[in-house]
Write a structure and sequence with these properties.
Mean pLDDT: 93
Shape: globular
Distance between the termini: 25 Å
Order of helices and strands: EEHEHEE
Largest sheet: 5 strands, antiparallel
Number of helices: 2
Helix content: under 10%
Strand content: 35-45%
Number of domains: 1
CATH topology: SH3 type barrels
Strand order of the largest sheet: 4-3-2-1-5
Radius of gyration: 14 Å
Length: 95
């Protein structure tokens, strides 16, 4: 399995609404971050939660978001960030 994104690459989290179990916090949807690392490839937890034991496998990334990107009123240091682990099918390339 090859990863679509590389460390240092800018990505945007998809904004789609999905019923049921998802591992994507709402506060990062539609936000721009940078891939910090590739964590490996794992079965899709959204499919596993529905009992699909043959779930498709996706790359999992640790994506770093500037606090100011997530919370526009953030008044802490400009370098503060939040890392979130996200599956590839939730990520799009950023311009």
């Amino acid at each position: 399995m090859s990863a679509r994104f590389a460390p240092g690459q800018a990505v945007v989290v998809a904004t789609r609404e999905v019923a049921g179990h998802v591992r994507v916090p709402r506060y990062v949807r539609g936000k721009r971050g940078v891939v910090e690392r590739i964590c490996g490839a794992f079965p899709n937890p959204e499919e596993l939660a529905l009992g699909r034991r043959d779930a498709s496998v996706h790359a999992l990334y640790r994506v770093r978001f500037a606090q100011g990107e997530l919370w526009p009123d953030y008044s802490g240091p400009a370098g503060d960030s939040v890392d979130v682990e996200l599956y590839e099918h939730w990520l799009e390339g950023a311009q």
